[in-house]
Design brief:
about 300 residues; alpha/beta; Rossmann fold; 4-stranded parallel sheet; two-stranded antiparallel ribbon; globular
């Protein structure tokens, strides 16, 4: 996600971790494993074209994971956002009839450019790429898309792409931001949250890929970052005064990432995954006429 960011054409998983969580131990791995409750393999790229030819049809739902490759403080990997998006899309696809597409790993992140390794694409190119990708899905019969997003800098651009596709009646595509689906739980679990590289993202990576969390840097992330946004001049007289993350946080972290436990991490992930499953099912259950725009309103006779 992006600290301080706002977010053109037309329509529980049994992760196998329960005992390890209770014991406070994790098995080293690089990818999230949802095999415990897998219905069937819903990852498009694992199938052959004859298999997909029989499976894809109008009304199919695709989950498109999108994130970023950008700094997340001294304690989390650059891959944080796209790992979160991919893990949630994987879990939701395994629990529903939605398909998961390959992950879009680089997003709109120029506001993190001062930190080594951060990658980004310019907004017009990002929008065009995602729109073209979505139109390709519609060509194959997938006319309902959920942009499973884990990066704040992508939000406004994904909504614009969705508007374009909707206006053209090509596909019904909506942007879904995982933490916005469970705001009450986030506030309940973490006293000093922070919009970027804080406890909520630290918790998600603790659950998804614990080996990638630099536990020896958690206190450094807190002490060298910005724990409370009220302590900065981020907003003055109603105006946002900053453009880059480094303007507010010297190390790129916000909030208190030390306030994370395996139990909180699992609870956070499961709640977000459940919301995504429900969204995919809601979209899949709608008739096409319910999802696309009404005809132009004609002038009533006086």
């Amino acid at each position: 996600m992006v600290a301080g960011s706002a977010g053109g054409h037309k329509k529980g998983v049994d992760t196998g971790q329960t005992e390890r969580v209770r014991a406070g131990r994790f098995r080293r791995r690089r990818r999230f494993d949802t095999s415990g409750r897998r219905r069937r393999d819903m990852y498009l790229a694992d199938h052959t074209w004859p298999e997909l030819g029989d499976a894809l049809s109008p009304g199919s739902v695709a989950l498109v994971p999108l994130g970023s490759t950008e700094q997340h403080g001294p304690h989390l990997p650059l891959a944080t956002d796209h790992l979160i998006a991919e893990a949630l899309a994987t879990a939701a696809a395994d629990r529903s009839d939605a398909f998961r597409t390959p992950t879009i790993n680089v997003g709109v992140s120029p506001h993190h450019r001062q930190f080594p390794g951060t990658m980004w694409v310019d907004p017009p190119e990002f929008r065009d790429y995602v729109e073209s990708f979505s139109r390709n899905l519609a060509y194959h019969g997938i006319d309902r898309v959920v942009f499973v997003n884990a990066h704040g800098g992508n939000v406004q651009h994904l909504r614009e792409v969705g508007r374009r596709l909707h206006e053209d009646e090509v596909a019904y595509a909506v942007e879904w931001m995982w933490d916005e689906s469970i705001p009450e739980l986030v506030d309940e679990l973490f006293e000093r949250n922070g919009p970027h590289a804080g406890p909520k993202e630290t918790a998600m990576i603790t659950h998804i890929a614990p080996d990638l969390v630099r536990e020896d840097r958690l206190e450094d992330a807190r002490d060298g970052g910005l724990v409370d946004l009220d302590d900065s001049d981020a907003v003055v007289h109603g105006a946002r005064t900053f453009y880059d993350s480094i303007d507010n946080s010297a190390n790129g972290a916000f909030g208190d990432p030390t306030d994370v436990t395996p139990e909180k991490s699992e609870r956070l992930f499961e709640a977000a995954a459940d919301q995504l499953v429900q969204l995919a099912e809601w979209i899949g259950d709608r008739d096409r006429d319910e999802l696309f725009p009404e005809p132009r309103v004609e002038r009533e006779d006086a």
